[in-house]
C-alpha cells in the first residue's frame, strides 16, 4: 500500500515538473528561463554528485574536472569548423580538432562517455585511499584538468577558451535530462547497488565483512556520477555558448558542495531543494545589491551585500538543521506520519 | 520682463521634464570576488562620468543599472540576460576580463544590444560580432607599441619574453610583441613560460641572465612581475624591463621597490599629461570630489565607455534605438574622451594612442605618447 502511495507522489511530482517545463516558455521572460536552465543543469550536477558524496559517503572533490571534460567535449564537437578557424589565437589547432563535428545528442552522450571512461581509470588510484586523503586525491584531479585546459592550446585554445558554441540548450533539454538524471539516480539508490553504497557510507569495514564488494560499489557510484556530470557540463557549454578554464576552478565544486550539504547529504530531494535555493536564491537576492528605499531614505548600492546575507542564511540553516534541510529524507518521507519517518 | 523669462524658462523645463524619459544603460562588472579591486575602480569611472553627464541632449535621463558578476562566467550570463530582458537596457558597459566580456557579448550580440568593453584587450573579442565594441586598445596594438619603441627609439636588438600561460592577456600580448619585434628587425632569443601564482623565479631570472638579451618583455600582471624584478636584481641582472598595462598601478611600484626603478610599461593615459580638454575637466572634477589628482587608467576608460555610449545615443533620433546606437558607436571618429582621442572602426575596435611610462623615484613618470 505504501509503495503504491510513494509511486503516486513521485509520479505526480515528475508530471508536475514536466507540465511546468511545458508552460514555462510562454509564461516567463528570458531572464527567468535562464535561471530555470541553470537550476536544471545544477540539479543534474548536484544529484549525481550527491550519489558519490552523500549516498556512498566518499568525500570526493572532483566534479569540476568531469564537468570541464563534458563542456570541452561538447564544445569541440558543436563549434563549426569555420568558427574554429578564427578562434585559435595562440597556436594553430591540431588538424583533428578542426574535423570534429557532431550533433547535440551525440556530443552530450560522448561528453558523458569520456567522463565515465576517465572516472573508471581514476577509480583505481582514488579508491585506494579513504576519507580526507580521497578528498585530496580527487581535488588534485580537478586541478590537473584545469591546468591541462590552460596548457594545451592546440586542443582547448588555452585560457581564452572556446566561443561561438551553438546555443542548443533550452528548458526542454536541460529539464528533460534533469528528470532522467533524478529518476536514474533514485532507482540506483533504491536498488541493491544503492543499499551497498549506503553500507559503504555507514561503515565500510562492516560492509566488507558482510560480503559487499565495496570497490565495485564505489566505482559504480563514481562512474554514474561522472557520466551525468559530463552531460551536465555539455549542457552548460551549450547554454553559455562560451567556456574557458577559469569557469572550472575549485569554486565550481565548492558551489556544488554547498548545494548538497545545504539540502542534506544523501538526499536526492535535498539536492534539488539545495539547487533551487542556491541558484535561484542568489539571483533573487540581487535586490540587496541595488539601492533600497527605507521610509523615504535611500541607501546606496552595495554590490556584494547579497553574498553576505546569503552566507548568513547558510549559517543559520546549518545551525538549526544540522543535517541540511532535508536530512536523509526524500520527498515521499514528507507525506508519511511521524512514527514511520522516525525509524 | 525678467519674471516672464524665468516663467517661460521654468515652463519649458517642466514641459521637457514631463516628456523626458528614463533610459537604462546596463553595467556588468566584477564588483566582488577576486577581481573586485579592478572592477570597482572601473565602475568608479563609469559612475563618475554619469554624475557629470546624467542627461542626454534631448533631456532624457540615463539610468545606470549595475549588476555584479563576482568575476564568474555563469553570473555574467545571468546578469546580461537580466539587463536585456527585465531592465530593457539600450546598451551594456562591461565586463572586466576578456573571457567574461566574451560571455556578455555572446548573449548581447544575439539580442542586438551594443556592448562597450572598457578594458578587455584580447584581439579575438570583437571578431565575427556585430554589437561588440571597446574603448581600450587591443593586445596586438600594445605589443606593437612596445616592440617598435624598443627597436626604433631605444635601438635594442635582442629580447627575452616571459609569458604567463594562465592568462589570456599575457598570451595575446606576448604573441603580438614577438611578431612586431621580429618585423622591426629584432630577435627573440628566448621565451620562458610561467604561471600566475608562482613565487620563485630564480630559475627564470638565471635563464634570462644566461641568454644575455638587450632587454626583457614581461607581459603579465603586477604580482609576478614585481617578484621577477626583485629576484633579477638579486642576481645582478640589470637589463631594461618592459611590460604592458598589467603593471600600470601604484601597487606594482610599491611591491617592486627599488628593483623596479627604470621599469617601462605601456598605459592608456597619464593624468599628468591630459590628452584632451575633456580629460582636463574630468581630472579637475575628480580632484574636487575625491581630493586626489591621480586618475587611474581604469577610471578613465570606464568613463570613456560611458561617454562614448551617451555620445552615440545623442546622435540617434531615438536614443532607445539599439541598432542606431550601435551603428553610431562604430561611426565615431576623433571622439575626445577622458583617456585620449578615440576613433572606432567597423569591427568595434578603437584606434587610440598609447602612453609609455617609466618608473622614477617610486612614481610612474610619463615618457612618450605613441599614436597609431
Automatic annotation (TrEMBL), chain A:
Give a GO molecular function annotation for the protein: branched-chain amino acid transmembrane transporter activity
Keyword annotations for this protein, in alphabetical order, are: Cell membrane, Membrane, Transmembrane, Transmembrane helix
> Quick one: where is this thing mainly located?
membrane
Note the superkingdom of the native organism: Bacteria
Q: Name one GO cellular component term.
A: plasma membrane
Membrane topology, from the record: Multi-pass membrane protein
Where in or outside the cell?
Cell membrane
Q: Does the keyword Membrane apply?
A: yes
Pfam families from the UniProt entry: BPD_transp_2
Q: What is this protein called?
A: Branched-chain amino acid ABC transporter permease
Organism encoding this protein: Sulfurospirillum cavolei
What is the phylogenetic placement of the source species in the record?
Bacteria, Pseudomonadati, Campylobacterota, Epsilonproteobacteria, Campylobacterales
UniProtKB/TrEMBL annotation, chain B:
Protein's UniProt name? Branched-chain amino acid ABC transporter substrate-binding protein
Q: PANTHER family, per this entry?
A: LEUCINE-SPECIFIC-BINDING PROTEIN, PERIPLASMIC BINDING PROTEIN OF ABC TRANSPORTER FOR NATURAL AMINO ACIDS
Keyword terms = Amino-acid transport, Signal, Transport
Domain Leucine-binding protein, by residue range, is 22-345
Spell out the family assignment given in the record's similarity comment.
Belongs to the leucine-binding protein family.
UniProt keyword Zinc present: no
Instruction: Tell me the superkingdom of the source.
Output: Bacteria
Q: Please tell me whether the keyword Transport is annotated for this protein.
A: yes
Signal peptide start and end residues: 1-20
Any one of the GO BP annotations: amino acid transport
Task: Please name the InterPro entries in this protein's record.
Answer: BCAA_transport, Leu-bd, Leu_Ile_Val-bd, Peripla_BP_I
Tell me what organism the protein belongs to: Sulfurospirillum cavolei
Amino acid at each position: 500500500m505504501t509503495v503504491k502511495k510513494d509511486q503516486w507522489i513521485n509520479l505526480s511530482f515528475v508530471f508536475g515538473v514536466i507540465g511546468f517545463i511545458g508552460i514555462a516558455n510562454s509564461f516567463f521572460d528570458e531572464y527567468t528561463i535562464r535561471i530555470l536552465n541553470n537550476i536544471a543543469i545544477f540539479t543534474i550536477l548536484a544529484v549525481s554528485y550527491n550519489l558519490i558524496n552523500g549516498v556512498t559517503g566518499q568525500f570526493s572533490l572532483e566534479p569540476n574536472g568531469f564537468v570541464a571534460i563534458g563542456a570541452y567535449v561538447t564544445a569541440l564537437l558543436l563549434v563549426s569548423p569555420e568558427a574554429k578557424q578564427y578562434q585559435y589565437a595562440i597556436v594553430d589547432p591540431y588538424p583533428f580538432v578542426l574535423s570534429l563535428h557532431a550533433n547535440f545528442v551525440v556530443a552530450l552522450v560522448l561528453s558523458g562517455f569520456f567522463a565515465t571512461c576517465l572516472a573508471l581509470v581514476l577509480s583505481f588510484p582514488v579508491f585506494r585511499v579513504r576519507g580526507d586523503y580521497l578528498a585530496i586525491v580527487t581535488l588534485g584531479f580537478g586541478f590537473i584538468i584545469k591546468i591541462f585546459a590552460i596548457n594545451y592550446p592546440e586542443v582547448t585554445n588555452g585560457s581564452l577558451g572556446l566561443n561561438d558554441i551553438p546555443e542548443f540548450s533550452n528548458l526542454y533539454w536541460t529539464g528533460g535530462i534533469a528528470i532522467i538524471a533524478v529518476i536514474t539516480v533514485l532507482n540506483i539508490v533504491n536498488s541493491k547497488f544503492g543499499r551497498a553504497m549506503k553500507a559503504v557510507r555507514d561503515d565500510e569495514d562492516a560492509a566488507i565483512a558482510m560480503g559487499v564488494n565495496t570497490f565495485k560499489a564505489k566505482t559504480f557510484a563514481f562512474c554514474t556520477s561522472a557520466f551525468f556530470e559530463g552531460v551536465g557540463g555539455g549542457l552548460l557549454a551549450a547554454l553559455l555558448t562560451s567556456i574557458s578554464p577559469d569557469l572550472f576552478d575549485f569554486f565550481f565544486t565548492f558551489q556544488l558542495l554547498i548545494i548538497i550539504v545545504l539540502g542534506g547529504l544523501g538526499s536526492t530531494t535535498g539536492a534539488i531543494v539545495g539547487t533551487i535555493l542556491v541558484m535561484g536564491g542568489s539571483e533573487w537576492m540581487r535586490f540587496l545589491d541595488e539601492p533600497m528605499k527605507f521610509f523615504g531614505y535611500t541607501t546606496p548600492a552595495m554590490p556584494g551585500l547579497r553574498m553576505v546575507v546569503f552566507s548568513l542564511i547558510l549559517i543559520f540553516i546549518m545551525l538549526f538543521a544540522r543535517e541540511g534541510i532535508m536530512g536523509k529524507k526524500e520527498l515521499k518521507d514528507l507525506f508519511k506520519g511521524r512514527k514511520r519517518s522516525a525509524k | 520682463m525678467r519674471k516672464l523669462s524665468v516663467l517661460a524658462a521654468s515652463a519649458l523645463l517642466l514641459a521637457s521634464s514631463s516628456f523626458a524619459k528614463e533610459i537604462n544603460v546596463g553595467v556588468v562588472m566584477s564588483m566582488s570576488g577576486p577581481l573586485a579591486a579592478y572592477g570597482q575602480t572601473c565602475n568608479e569611472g563609469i559612475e563618475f562620468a554619469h554624475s557629470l553627464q546624467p542627461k542626454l541632449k534631448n533631456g532624457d535621463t540615463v539610468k545606470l543599472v549595475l549588476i555584479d558578476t563576482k568575476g564568474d562566467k555563469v553570473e555574467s550570463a545571468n546578469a546580461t540576460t537580466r539587463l536585456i530582458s527585465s531592465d530593457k537596457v539600450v546598451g551594456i558597459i562591461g565586463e572586466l576580463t576578456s573571457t567574461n566580456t566574451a560571455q556578455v557579448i555572446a548573449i548581447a550580440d544575439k539580442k542586438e544590444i551594443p556592448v562597450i568593453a572598457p578594458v578587455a584587450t584580447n584581439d579575438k573579442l570583437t571578431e565575427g560580432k556585430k554589437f561588440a565594441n571597446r574603448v581600450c586598445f587591443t593586445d596586438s596594438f600594445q605589443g606593437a607599441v612596445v616592440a617598435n619603441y624598443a627597436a626604433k627609439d631605444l635601438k635594442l636588438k635582442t629580447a627575452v619574453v616571459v609569458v604567463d600561460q594562465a592568462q589570456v592577456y599575457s598570451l595575446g600580448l606576448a604573441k603580438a610583441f614577438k611578431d612586431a619585434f621580429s618585423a622591426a628587425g629584432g630577435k627573440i632569443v628566448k621565451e620562458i613560460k610561467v604561471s600566475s601564482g608562482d613565487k620563485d623565479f630564480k630559475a627564470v631570472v638565471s635563464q634570462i641572465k644566461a641568454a644575455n638579451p638587450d632587454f626583457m618583455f614581461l607581459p603579465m600582471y603586477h604580482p609576478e612581475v614585481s617578484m621577477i624584478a626583485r629576484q633579477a636584481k638579486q642576481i645582478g641582472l640589470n637589463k631594461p624591463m618592459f611590460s604592458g598595462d598589467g603593471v600600470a598601478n601604484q601597487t606594482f611600484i610599491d611591491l617592486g621597490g627599488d628593483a623596479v626603478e627604470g621599469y617601462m610599461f605601456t598605459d592608456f593615459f597619464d593624468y599628468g599629461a591630459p590628452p584632451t580638454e575633456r580629460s582636463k575637466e574630468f581630472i579637475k572634477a575628480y580632484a574636487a570630489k575625491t581630493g586626489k589628482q591621480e586618475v587611474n587608467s581604469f577610471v578613465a576608460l570606464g568613463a570613456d565607455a560611458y561617454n562614448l555610449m551617451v555620445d552615440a545615443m545623442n546622435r540617434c533620433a531615438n536614443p532607445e534605438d539599439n541598432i542606431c546606437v550601435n551603428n553610431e558607436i562604430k561611426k565615431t571618429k576623433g571622439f575626445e574622451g577622458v583617456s585620449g582621442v578615440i576613433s572606432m572602426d567597423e569591427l568595434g575596435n578603437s584606434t587610440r594612442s598609447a602612453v609609455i611610462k617609466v618608473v622614477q623615484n617610486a612614481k610612474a613618470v610619463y615618457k612618450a605618447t605613441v599614436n597609431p
